[in-house]
Amino acid sequence: MLQSVVVSSGHPAAYDVLVGLHVLCAVVGFGAVAVSGAYGAIARNVESGASRRQSAEEVRRYFASPSSLENLILIAPLFGMGAMAVRPGGSQFGHLWAVSGVVIWIAAGGLLTAVVRPAERRIRSAGDDLTPVANDARRLMWAAAGSDVLFVVALFLMVTQPG
């Protein structure tokens, strides 16, 4: 029934919805990690003193509660695979771009679960003194940068769909 419904682009409506959800989850998820990395960069440079008090307060406010938006990175590929399953013209699961997308997802998920989330938890639990978590903030910043690079590579692969 779902495949019989066609929108103006010539694709089944299910395909368009799944692609839209895939893109939305990826953009919001990777965007949340990027913002967290930016606050990690601020946190690694916060020292005690009046000149840095406002930055420290902003970092504490950002990390006050955990964000669940980052977890959308883990969900995005499920919508992408669902879209490929109903794709007009057949699936392309074995193509280079699709396999590379799965590898990128594994790497991004690994960064999120092994580096980003633990660093955020330690920064959150640091309280008023952020100096002891400067290394965690640095790791968070670099993991977020790596995540951004993975996102750009994935975006390139999804748009160009090479062999």
Could you give a short description of this structure?
This protein has one domain (13-160).
What does this structure look like?
The protein has 163 residues and is mostly helical. The protein has one domain. The chain has 5 helices and no strands. Helix 1 (13-45) runs parallel beside helix 4 (96-125). The longest helix is centred in the N-terminal third of the chain and has 33 residues, at 13-45.
How many helices? The count is 5
H-E string: HHHHH
Task: List low-confidence stretches.
Answer: 1-8
Range of helix content:
55-70%
Shape: elongated
Tell me the number of strands: 0
Sheet having the most strands:
none
Overall tally of domains: 1
Rg over CA atoms, rounded to whole Å, is 19 Å
Binned strand content: under 5%
Terminal-residue CA separation: 31 Å
* Structural class by helix and strand composition: mainly alpha
- Output mean pLDDT: 85
